[in-house]
Amino acid sequence: MTLVNDITNFTNGYKQIKRIQDPIHGLMEFEDWIVKFIDTEHFQRLRNIKQLGNTYYVYPGASHNRFEHCLGVAHLAYSLVKRIHETQPELEHIEKDLKCVTLAALCHDLGHGPFSHLFENDFISRKRPEEKWTHEKGSKMMFEHLLNNNQVDIIDDLDTKDIKYIEKLIAGDRTQRSPYLFDIVANKRNSIDVDKFDYLDRDCHYLGIKSVFDSSRLMKFSRVVDDQITYYFKESYNIYELFHTRYSLHKKAYNHRVCKAIDYMIRDALLEADSVFEISDSINDANRYLKMDDTILNKIEFSDDPNLKKSKEIIKRIRTRNLYKFVDEYLVPNELKDKLTEKEINEEKIIAYQDNDGLKIDDVIVHRLTLNYGMKDENPVDHVKFYDKYTPNKVFKLERSQVSYLVPEQFEELNIRIFTKDREKVKPIRDCFQKLLKEYISEPKTYYTEI
């Protein structure tokens, strides 16, 4: 990524512009006030957190980091708000809105921990379940710490209300101040936002996966009506492609069987090392959290502390590709979702069917993988408003039948996947899982036959 400083002459004086060459968005320009945020240790920390965590172990091209993703989201947010201000001057614009939304976009992922979502979903949720911690909470903590501890005056003309507004934009907690801006960074109305625009384009690029979703076109055909961002109705199928691309990436890449196996290995390595490095305590201490990134694995690996023996053994297994093993899976029909709950399908229930195989609960991992279009079992397009160019200020909804009869009828699926830590126990665990499934279905299919 190339950084070039440039001085551009404006009517109100000189403004320093930093130009960054990005493989996804081309030449991105950032004014001096946002560069001050970029050049803090809080934001630079994101250089050492991979955007897709352990997906890199399966897709070697997926080595991009949260750093460039956040730059891309900030660039898109700035571009979209500026375009709205220019094309819809009749809207009431608060002068600071552009700066607030851009900062929210830039800082929305400051709270991600080592290996991105693994830290939040697998490690903290297991080690500190009472915290109900999310990376959004972490972003709020780090953003406030950045403002309170940075020696450079980076706040400029932003007051306390503006800071709280930025935090609400990051969290997606809608307020009365310019409500449509909450559709830009973290859109809880219909899940269409510039965060997705960037990570879908960026992840597809680095994964080597083709996508037909066109984010730039969708941005150009957007406008604000009734305090929300709406879209030209001919972009409806493009929006379906957005959600289908998201689903496909989760299905094929983010939750790849080998990626998930390595997730569980790194989770176990972090759990074993927590007493030494106090990793889980860092979520409540911004100074310590600053030191938490993907390099934690190297710190464990190269430490001489004897208490890290088990953790180092797990890491060595990753290095030598002696991974936890995928066992079997079952794609749950809708009519069985209420029956095949965590209470009915778990590690203890599975090994109860063993026949003197020496299985222990710790040998088995049950992964309940829920995939959807971003709004659980709802169709997110049902929450999108459209306009016609002939009546641009009148919005309407589109039924699925008005778009295509080939778009999905179901928008969420549950897949129960079984892994084992001991590769020698794949067959007996699979047999146990199949016996357990027969309590609910007559002939469960085995989806995976390799031992």
Fold blueprint:
Elements (H helix, E strand, L loop, with lengths): L1 E9 L2 E10 L3 E6 H7 L2 H4 L21 H22 L9 H11 L9 H11 L7 H15 L10 H12 L22 H14 L7 H6 L1 E4 L2 E5 L3 H19 L2 H21 L8 H4 L6 H6 L7 H11 L5 E8 L14 H5 L12 E9 L13 E3 L2 E6 L15 E9 L5 H12 L14
Parallel strand pairs: 5-8
Antiparallel strand pairs: 1-2, 2-3, 4-5, 6-10, 7-10, 8-9
Helix pairs in contact: 3-4, 3-8, 4-7, 5-11, 8-10, 11-14
Structure commentary:
It is a single chain. α5 packs across α11 (257-277) and α11 packs antiparallel against α14. The two termini are 43 Å apart. The chain has 2 domains: 2-257, Hypothetical protein af1432 (Orthogonal Bundle), CATH 1.10.3210.10; 325-373 and 411-451, Alpha-Beta Plaits (2-Layer Sandwich), CATH 3.30.70.2760. Helix content is 40%, strand content 15%. The chain is built from 16 helices and 10 strands. The chain is an alpha+beta fold. The strands form 3 sheets. The chain has a 4-stranded mixed β-sheet. It is globular and about 75 Å long.
**Secondary-structure element series:** EEEHHHHHHHHHEEHHHHHEHEEEEH
Shape: globular
SS field, number of helical segments: 16
Q: What's the arrangement of strands in the largest beta sheet? A: 4-5-8-9
Instruction: Give the biggest sheet.
Output: 4 strands, mixed
Radius of gyration of CA atoms, rounded to a whole number? 24 Å
Task: Summarize model confidence as the mean pLDDT.
Answer: 93
CATH architecture of the largest domain: Orthogonal Bundle
Task: State the end-to-end CA separation.
Answer: 43 Å
Poorly predicted runs: 2-13
SS elements, strand count:
10
What level of helicity do the residues show? 25-40%
Backbone structural class: alpha+beta
CATH topology (level 3) name of the largest domain: Hypothetical protein af1432
- Count of the domains: 2
